[in-house]
């Protein structure tokens, strides 16, 4: 149970970064930490004690395997996380070009 | 970059590219698959651009070449899965090539072809993202 | 096994807290790499080699892009104290207090729901679902691949792979559109 509690603490650290920071780059870092904690939680749920990696080898016979379904889902989620981060950084570049700063309190000039 | 970085890069880039192709093609036998191999091939290209400057690929902040590769790879993915509508059990995403014995290089039906197509797609996407964000120029707008 | 995992996750939490409170943006970005690379060691300990290969390469590419963005723009952290003193007194108290109150409320809500759901989770290491036993027994016969994860990703759940490819393509188009506004006519 201690492992689940620490994974949740990592999620709360990322949430603190998203809610209470004023620099756009640090908000992106907080979002990235939240995503990592979710990947870790999904793989922790699918672990079987004394299990092997889910690959059939000719020499060994069938033993207890770790669950392959959460691993298959997280495999695509990692690449999607990279795409989301890259898009947020592109928006941050545009904001810096227009306003000259990364502060979220100063970007409030909505032109009608 | 200094001469040491350039010499080591010349030796390493070829081996890394070959390693990426190995992981893509043996995706149904060993750990790896399309996503891991595509990311490794993108890493080899990024190393080449970082060591020699941005005019080694003759690009100068235009990325039409890698975008073309990515679009062609996605079209190939859709084509492979639509063919399953006409052969065999007539469902989308059907595995219609013969499945050999487990453990050989040519086995598992359509999965090696899927691995190759997804590997090209992921590599082209990562290279395009890198070129757009790192080697951009100031646009006059 | 549990103690090793707990120590590594503890290091990740310390790295994350340092990354969010650093004075320099370059140090913050490099400390974000601590969390990513610690995750690779956790994946290897939990017997997931596919995920470890993908995570280590993706983390390196993310670090390269972030360092390039930070070095091409400003590098220093914002001067928060000066801007707080220039405003009026009532403005400081309401904004600051609302900030802290939102964080505390969210944390208490999440802790309450986590405490309720921790009783339903099976203890760490015992995992029995009928879907996983069905996949493990039939994957080798029905797909013909020796790697069970690849068989599940490309054959049993092919629609998810199609969705992922679409998202990657859309993200690349979005980045190219945001950064290249060609002249207004």
Salient structural properties:
heterotrimer, A: 112 residues, mainly alpha, Helix Hairpins, 3 helices, C: 185 residues, 3 domains, 8 helices, 78% helix, extended
Question: How would you characterize the overall build of this protein?
Answer:
The complex is a heterotrimer of chains A (112), B (141) and C (185). Chain A has 112 residues and is mainly α. In chain A, 65% of the residues lie in helices and 0% in strands. Chain A has a single domain (2-48, 64-99), classed as Helix Hairpins (Orthogonal Bundle). Chain A has 3 helices and no strands. With 141 residues, chain B is mainly α. Chain B has 4 helices and no strands. In chain B, helix 1 (3-25) packs antiparallel against helix 2 (34-52). In chain B, 39% of the residues are buried. With 185 residues, chain C is mainly alpha-helical. Chain C folds into 3 domains: 1-77; 79-127; 140-185. Chain C is built from 8 helices and no strands. The model of chain C is unreliable at 81-87 (pLDDT under 50). Chains in contact: A-B, A-C, B-C. Chains A and C meet through helix 1, helix 2 and helix 3 of A and helix 1, helix 2, helix 3, helix 5 and helix 6 of C.
Number of helices of chain C: 8
CATH architecture name of chain A: Orthogonal Bundle
Question: What can be said about the biggest beta sheet of chain C?
Answer: none
Order of helical and strand elements of chain C: HHHHHHHH
Helix content of chain A: 55-70%
> How many domains would you count in the coordinates of chain A?
1
Enter the CATH topology name of chain A. Helix Hairpins
CATH class term of chain A: Mainly Alpha
SS strand fraction of chain C: under 5%
What percent of residues of chain C adopt helix (DSSP H or I)? over 70%
Roughly what is the average pLDDT of chain A, rounded to an integer?
88
